[in-house]
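Fold this complex.
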Amino acid sequence: MAKNPMELKWQEIPLGFVWHQPQSSLNNHTGSWRSERPIWDEQHCIRCGVCALFCPESCIRTDERGYFHADLDYCKGCSICAHECWTGCIKMKPEEA
Amino acid sequence: MGKRKGVESSIALADSAAMCRIEAIAAYPITPQTHIVEHLSEWVNDGHLEAEFVPVESEHSAMSAALGMSAVGARTFTATSSQGLALMHEILFIAPAMRLPIVMAVANRSLSGPISIWNDHSDIMTDRDIGWVQIFAENGQECFDLVPACFRVAEDKRVVLPTILNFDGFVVSHMIEPIEFWTQEQFDAYLPPFDPQIKLDVRKPVAMGAVGIPEIYYEARLAQQNALLNAKAVVVEAFAELEKTVGRKYNLVETYKADDADAILYLMGSLSETAMTAVDNLRAQGKKVGLVRPRLWRPFPTQELLAAFGNVPVVGVCDRALAFGLEHHMVAQEIRTLFYDAPHRPKLVEFVIGLGGRDVTIGDMEHILNRLLEVKNGAPVGPVEYVGVRK
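Structure:
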């Protein structure tokens, strides 16, 4: 298993900041930027997936029942999903300090 | 001894770049660099150089295209000046971060305004901290000789950084001089084919120009800083090999009659040729003055400069651009920094001269050198002197 790039010392940075492994952007855990998280109300969710379509981080996926959840490693809390949701079932909840 | 030709420095510089077997050129014409780009387009158009010539619509695009062509593994050259360099500004930082060994000739020129096409160092002083290796040529022969040296340094596996060759606009770029051309065999022996360390290749995909989030940006920047600092040893090697190839010796720091001097003037670019004549004139009067100039400007040759200045009691510094809002201009700031931690700290006398193409005469230089000797003999240092300005 290669070292997590986010733990590299400066001496270990690849030449030209070039990444040879595909999907290297998965190492960028943008979820740490979040101040609010989306919460789905499954009573009102119609499982249409418009939230996942609009998510700029592409971090919203379905569970085995077909309901949607954000991957909090990457969700920046931008609230676009809540804004776009047709049924208004997504509420943004502030992160605890 | 190669063949000497009476030729304009810009043309010789372009010939030198072509004889480096450059494979890609992206450039936009701007005075006083235009002849370089024009002449290279002739090389390509006439079928003498197999290179991709991209006539872009701006310097921002020139540097962007240069990045792309270097990234696919082509030996890439461009040239610019003044407003063109300024327009490249945001892209200039990306080339060294991506470790793309582009070589760029910069015909140093003033920045607007007022609008001025003439020579000073405003353009490059503004782009001092872009992370490129930077070298200065003082005449046409040096322009010709140092283009292959720039490629050799830039492409060296221990460096892999873009490199700028600075030379004075008009004063050098448009001067016709007898220039000794290297043979193509000498070029080929001195400069091996480009072996790119980074290459876009569909068969071996990589991610280039990726985002650096706060967890890694800092480490990436420090890696770049150390790469540039480590380039110095490779520049020394490149100059030594150049001397073996054509017999001309280049040093990281050039000196003129500095060894026994009572006062040394530090200056950059072609002004040194005027200053040398002034030094000779004063030496003829028994006045011991000398010159120190950086050949390599970035990475900054700290130890070599301290060695060149030695224990001289008075150092003069010539600035050819203004650091607006501070009465210690860019070159003076660097030399003040140089001496701050030095065991021996000389008196520093600061001058501004030759802004926007204002002619600098031998008499101006004699005035500066005499002023240094007055300080040596006890006159006060005083604030920066704006030499030649009407007041």
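Chain A is about 10% helix and 15% strand.
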